[in-house]
């Protein structure tokens, strides 16, 4: 069971309260009708899928209900940080905070 | 290669089984190959086997970072079926079932293909309607599938709980009789033995760290833990790690890697005659020839390379199984494990050429790659040998994510989707 820190509730809670919502910081195109097929492909389908730190969205569904961003290492499944949606992309590398 | 038959078995039995020769040598890499296949699972080894046996290309190496068959080939729940909705998928998976039927004879290796039937349970009116639509679509494509009433389903699978008072009552089932199971390890071993006997090098415990390209953009070879290996063609068949390998060649793929877990119970006497899947309750179950109940469901919700997965999903899976089969609610579970599956946005595989000349990819099988092993390997070998797709895998291009011609099986397949 993963333990996830909700940056709004400021509590570390079990995975069962949260839902995963895919890769973070994928900006919706400002002018969709101007996009080429290649840009649409990249926006809709191509994902970084890294082996290591991954910027991703989670939702505290059975809590405050809000979306937030996280950086999780996809090899160890450890969360490196979480931060509210709307904040800029967390820079890497992230030093893990002491529990 | 010792040919397996009753005579060789008897001869070796009399010798106390001390004189069996090794089934394939542990090869070391040579400097150059015609084809290097990255990933020694069933798909990669099978492609090497068909390259050698059907296309006369024997200067081939299959390279794996671990031991052969140690990835998803050894981690799946061994289910084989071809009752997919769309024409493209039905052709691909039914091609695989055609090859499964004769695979033990072809390889002289018992892959224990068992046509025990796959039963998909309908628990609500929507299930009934959509399964009947599937059955009609399948039959139009020449894929066997038929509707069973509740009583017929109970006769086919006696442990089934058909009580109308169940939380999710069974309202009928779709049955594909040609579907079933096979021994997953034996598939990798049989292909490895057949390929090695025809001159293919199988190089284990040798991670491929990068794909290198020539100045003109075409493939030059692969960097490995044992040095650079030059190759005229490189074929990647690396399942959950395909994104990582392909990125080194500058190819970004529409893939995300998720853990898919499975578990087995303690072994018991034969009590479960077929494979049962339930989309609505969300789990599937069969019994291995060793007697273990083999159980699985969907992927974990988050991407990961951990080959582990979380316990909440196991609890969800077992809850679903005991809902449909209350007789198993006191069974003890023995082991659980995870494999990393590469999932595409339309839940269909990518099998063919890439934007890089002489680089080929077979990936995106998501939660259902085992059943396709012989069919995928066969058409992948064709694609590599002829530098053009076989008609069966022609629709499964990487370009479809740009053109929009998706093969959207996401809502059309089994529980894992």
UniProtKB/TrEMBL annotation, chain A:
One of its GO terms (biological process) is tetrahydrofolate metabolic process. InterPro entries: SoxD (IPR006279), SoxD_sf (IPR038561). GO terms for molecular function: sarcosine oxidase activity. It holds the Pfam family SoxD. It comes from the Bacteria. This is Sarcosine oxidase subunit delta family protein. It comes from Paracoccus siganidrum.
TrEMBL record, chain B:
Residues 35-79 form the Rhodanese domain. GO terms for cellular component: cytoplasm. It holds the Pfam family DAO. One of its GO terms (molecular function) is nucleotide binding. Keywords: Cytoplasm, FAD, Flavoprotein, FMN, Nucleotide-binding, Oxidoreductase. It is found in: Cytoplasm. GO terms for biological process: tetrahydrofolate metabolic process. Its EC number is 1.5.3.24. It comes from Paracoccus siganidrum. It catalyses: sarcosine + O2 + H2O = formaldehyde + glycine + H2O2; sarcosine + (6S)-5,6,7,8-tetrahydrofolate + O2 = (6R)-5,10-methylene-5,6,7,8-tetrahydrofolate + glycine + H2O2. Its main location: cytoplasm. NCBIfam families: soxB. Its cofactor is FMN; FAD. This is Sarcosine oxidase subunit beta. PROSITE patterns: RHODANESE_3 (PS50206). Belongs to the SoxB family.
